[in-house]
Design brief:
Strand order of the largest sheet: 1-2-10-11-12-3-4
Number of helices: 11
Pfam families: Beta-lactamase (PF00144)
Protein name: Serine hydrolase
GO molecular function, one term: hydrolase activity
CATH architecture: 3-Layer(aba) Sandwich
CATH superfamily: DD-peptidase/beta-lactamase superfamily
Number of domains: 1
Keywords: Hydrolase, Signal
Low-confidence stretches: 1-34, 391-399
Number of strands: 12
Shape: globular
InterPro entries: AmpC-like, Beta-lactam-related, Beta-lactam/transpept-like
Helix content: 25-40%
CATH class: Alpha Beta
Order of helices and strands: EEHEEEHHHHHHHEEEEHHEEEH
Mean pLDDT: 87
Distance between the termini: 21 Å
Length: 399
């Protein structure tokens, strides 16, 4: 999972990762926020192009302007090899690490309520990590650093490198659908790995940050994370088809697309029963294009956080060396952010404009590990829908 800052687009994830995702903040020059949205292209055609990418089994997408749908799309199939018919365009899907933006919002709502501060230390908020020696230098790590992935805490999910230096396999069994892992079990996995930097020194994506933030929410509120997400976000925003997966065998309700992942022999296996305990604050939300878009619209319109707390998540990181690099959308005419998320067999991405008026959410089920081509197709889909007159890919010239 990776968080990318303003005016920066790093390559889409090369591999599907647990609850892992990409948060891409793309800021281009734009006209006044009150300007009427430009003409839009066909969502269905954009989704069809996405589904035509090798390794994509099925895809759905939905675009919204001022809270109203301007098109839903579905292409490909629910199951591998064209079986199962099309995925319903309003089907639920795992949103992967887009969950993190929601968890971060709840944390900052607790800051607004005076329950904690962004400068509070992990050791004070979650003493168990010190008592059990689960996080090194917990007395120096702040909430702000965990929110922004500058804590230096290693990622419990990250693949171990091979002897030749290449990326190894993911650190858990993607076909273990039944074993329940407690959040602290996942944190413990990261303890033997080297830190990625000094606290606050640099950006280094780590799912462990959000596993810990989920535990902090539960300790401060006395409620489980699923309850806090529902009561603070899903219920008030009318996200009626959204919920948080907690333990196996929790899964996706209703007809939906199935993802596939190769086993050690290279054979594709259905991973629809993906282990729910791997969410744990870092992922785990199941939603729809409508509901995800409703969350991002409320977030950008300032309905969830005051401006000073919103900026904790959106201000650029001065210690990220990639700041300021990257292309723009639509020749600099589209001003907004993209958040994405992956899990074995799945890849999701949502674009939302900085003024809160436009959103485009997509989900693709996969039969490959490499997410580069599906990710590129999603970037292209955003441009084809919100600037159909543009013929330039948003990543053109970046290869």
């Amino acid at each position: 999972m990776r968080v990318v800052s303003r005016k920066n687009v790093r390559p889409p994830l090369r591999r599907a990762g647990l609850a892992a995702g990409v948060a891409i903040l793309m800021m281009a020059e734009a006209g006044p926020a009150t300007a009427a949205p430009a003409p839009t292209g066909s969502v269905q055609k954009a989704v069809e192009k996405l589904a035509a990418v090798p390794g994509v089994v099925g895809a759905v997408g939905g675009a919204y302007v001022d809270g109203r749908s301007i098109g839903l799309g579905s292409a490909g199939s629910r199951l591998l090899d064209g079986r199962g018919g099309r995925i319903p365009a309003n089907a639920r899907f795992r949103i992967g690490s887009q969950t993190k933006q929601m968890v971060a919002t709840v944390v900052l709502q607790l800051v607004k309520e005076g329950r904690l501060s962004v400068d509070d230390k992990l050791s004070d908020l979650l003493p168990v990590v010190v008592q059990k020696d689960l996080v090194e230098r917990a007395d120096e790590i702040t909430v702000r650093q965990m929110l922004r992935h500058t804590s230096g805490i290693p990622d419990w999910y990250a693949a171990e490198p091979k002897p030749d230096g290449s990326e190894g396999d993911i650190s858990f069994d993607p076909f273990d659908f039944t074993t329940y892992y407690r959040p602290l079990d996942l944190v413990k996995w990261s303890r033997s790995r080297p830190r990625t930097g000094e606290p606050g020194e640099k950006f280094s994506y780590s799912n462990t940050n959000y596993t810990l933030l989920g535990l902090i929410i539960e300790r401060l509120t006395g409620h489980d994370l699923a309850t806090e997400l529902h009561d603070r976000l899903f219920g008030p925003l009318g996200m009626t088809r959204t919920y948080f997966l907690v333990k196996p065998p929790d899964g996706i309700k209703g007809p939906h697309g199935h993802g596939y992942y190769p086993d050690a022999d290279g054979d594709l296996r259905d991973v629809d029963r993906f282990n729910a305990s791997f969410g744990s604050g870092a992922g785990g939300v199941v939603s729809t294009t409508h509901d995800v878009s409703a969350f991002y619209r409320a977030f950008t319109e300032g309905k969830l956080l005051p401006p000073e707390l919103q900026r904790v998540l959106t201000d650029p990181l001065s210690n990220d060396p990639a700041q300021g690099s990257g292309p723009d959308f639509c020749g600099g005419k589209l001003d907004g952010w993209i958040w994405g998320g992956t899990a074995p067999g799945y890849f999701t991405m949502t674009f939302y404009s900085k003024d809160g008026r436009r959103q485009f959410s997509m989900s693709a089920t996969l039969s490959v590990k490499d997410t580069t081509e599906p990710g590129q197709a999603m970037f292209n889909a955003v441009e084809s829908v919100f600037c159909p007159s543009s013929s330039r890919s948003p990543r053109e010239g970046q290869r």
